[in-house]
Amino acid sequence: MHAFHREVFMDFDPLLVSKLNEKKFLGPCSPARSLLSEHRLRTIVENAHELLKIIEEFGSLDEYCWGFLNYKPMVGRYRSPREVPLRTPKAEALSQDLMRRGLRGVGPTVVYAFMQAVGMANDHLATCYRLDECAAAEASDGGHGGTLVKEQEMGKMCGMMIECVSLESSMAAAMISIS
């Protein structure tokens, strides 16, 4: 599904997504139309417009998002999957700011799933071998997002935001693997 999303949403380039016209995007033969409802497609295009404003103001989506965490990832060290939250106060703050800026479909559960997916929240269990490996990688670059901070990787963050918005909240939370 990710490859299909990448193709339909032009490699998750918010500039290109924001320029999609209704005829191409919402037409009866549109591959996007077979993937998502008209409401969600409109939300994605409108959100792309708002993401461009954020990028203009902050220099990148990366800079904007990491600012909510003081450029340090959250590390949970949970003992069981039941302890891993579906939302956090920082996800709620980011969600509220995104909504204030006009984005839709970015509730705190969706935003927290996004934060987990892009490495802003390290919720590997305390028993997982990846926990320390990810924490060490984050520490080596000052904690600012591991491999996702490079400008050429911004599409990954925009893509994850698009994919999280296109899912129901419960599905967005379930798409994150905690193994």
Shape: globular
List the secondary-structure elements in sequence, H or E.
HHHHHHEHHEHHH
Count of discrete domains: 1
Topology, number of strands = 2
Number of helices: 11
Given as residue ranges, the uncertain stretches (5+ residues, pLDDT < 50) are 146-154, 168-179
CA-based gyration radius: 16 Å
Strand arrangement within the widest β-sheet reads 1-2
Residue share in helix: 55-70%
Main β-sheet, in a few words? 2 strands, parallel
Tell me the name of the CATH homologous superfamily: Hypothetical protein, domain 2
User: Which band does the percent of strand residues land in?
Assistant: under 5%
**Distance linking N and C termini:** 21 Å
Class of secondary structure makeup: mainly alpha
Average pLDDT over all residues: 77
Q: What is the CATH first-level class name?
A: Mainly Alpha
Explain how this protein is built.
InterPro entries: Adenine_glyco, DNA_glycosylase. Zn(2+) binds at residues 124, 128. Keywords: Metal-binding, Zinc. GO terms for molecular function: DNA-3-methyladenine glycosylase activity; metal ion binding. One of its GO terms (biological process) is base-excision repair. It is a single chain. The chain is mainly alpha-helical and 179 residues long. It has one domain: Endonuclease III, domain 1, CATH 1.10.340. 58% of the residues lie in helices and 2% in strands. The chain is built from eleven helices and two strands. It has helices at 2-8, 14-18, 22-26, 31-35, 38-58, 61-67, 89-100, 108-117, 129-140, 154-166, 169-174; strands spanning 74-75, 121-122. Strands 1-2 form a two-stranded parallel sheet. Helix 5 runs antiparallel to helix 10 (154-166), helix 7 crosses helix 8 and helix 8 (108-117) packs antiparallel against helix 10 (154-166). The longest helix has 21 residues, at 38-58. The radius of gyration is 16 Å and the shape is globular. The model is unreliable at 146-154 and 168-179 (pLDDT under 50).
